[in-house]
């Protein structure tokens, strides 16, 4: 749910069941998105309503711009592709 990408059959992912304002819902996300959220310290740097998909996308975009300012290829990527790109370069984060 962070990146909006599909979780494919057999792929590892995180799932939590939550209660918000009387509504129960499931939050499902790729392990790789969870890894990026932790790597970029998103949970500590988030807003009152927690880390949302929109906020996640902003953090991912900012990380690419901050750490890799000359990466024009990121402009045409989906959030999921940006996550993959960051993971491939995580030693530089």
Question: How would you explain this protein's 3D organization?
Answer:
- With 93 residues, this protein is α+β, with helices and mostly antiparallel strands.
- It is globular, with a radius of gyration of 14 Å.
- A hairpin with a 2-residue loop joins strand 1 (13-20) and strand 2.
- The protein is built from three helices and two strands, in the order E-E-H-H-H.
- It has one domain (13-92).
- The mean pLDDT is 89.
- The protein has a two-stranded antiparallel ribbon with strand order 1-2.
Main sheet record: 2 strands, antiparallel
- Which strand order do you get reading across the main beta sheet? 1-2
Taking all Cα atoms into account, the compactness measure Rg is 14 Å
- How far do the termini sit from each other? 23 Å
SSE-based structural type: alpha+beta
Q: Write down the secondary-structure element order.
A: EEHHH
**Share in β-strands:** 15-25%
Which whole number gives the mean pLDDT?
Answer: 89
Helix content, binned percent = 25-40%
Please tell me what the overall shape is: globular
Number of helices: 3
- Regarding quaternary structure, how should these chains be classified? single chain
Number of domains: 1
Tally of DSSP β-strands: 2
